[in-house]
Each structure stands twice: as C-alpha cells, then as structure tokens.
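User: Please fill in residues for this 103-position structure.
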C-alpha cells in the first residue's frame, strides 16, 4: 500500500519547478498571470474625440478619369424605378503607378 502512495504522490522537487528554475517553457508555469492588462473601462477601437486620419482626396488636376456608377435596381427592394434625387454618394479613388522606363 505504501509503495502505491509513493508512485501516486509527485516528488516535491517537481512541484516547485517553473520556467525560471527549469527547462520548462513559460506557457507551462503554474499560476501564471494572463498577458492581458488591467481593464481601462474604455471600449476597444477608436476613442470618442480622437481625430481621425484620412488620406486627402486628389485634386481635380491630378484626376485623369472620372466614372459615375449608377445601380440598375434598388439594393433594398430590387425595384427598377428610381427617384431622380441621389440618396447615397460614395467616393472611391484608385491610384495607379505608371511604369518607369529605363534609359
């Protein structure tokens, strides 16, 4: 009976091992603290009042082509009848890089 208890009970030297005094990786440290910091009470993402960073649109001199796109049907009700007034305007700019000729 005593020999079974010795096999079940881990040696006391193993109980005190961690990544600092053995070759164990830090992920196997017992009672390790999580890497997350203390909660700040703020929601994740951009904070209210913080100025946004937006790339400035190109001037009219720099634009070589302008394409107006109109839907053929309503995105909500799929009707083909539209009002004359524009409800949504989205600006999308694409910059192309011209080839450099070697001379």
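Assistant: Residues filled in for all 103 positions:
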């Amino acid at each position: 009976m005593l020999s079974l208890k010795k096999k079940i009970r881990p040696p006391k030297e193993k109980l005190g091992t961690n990544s600092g005094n053995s070759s164990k990786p830090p992920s196997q440290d017992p009672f390790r603290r999580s890497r997350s910091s203390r909660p700040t009470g703020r929601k994740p993402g951009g904070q209210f009042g913080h100025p946004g960073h937006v790339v400035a649109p190109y001037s009219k001199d720099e634009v070589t082509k302008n394409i107006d796109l109109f839907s053929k049907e309503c995105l909500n009700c799929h009707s083909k009848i539209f009002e004359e007034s524009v409800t949504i305007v989205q600006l999308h700019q694409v910059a192309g890089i011209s080839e450099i000729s070697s001379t």
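For context: The two ends are 91 Å apart (CA to CA).
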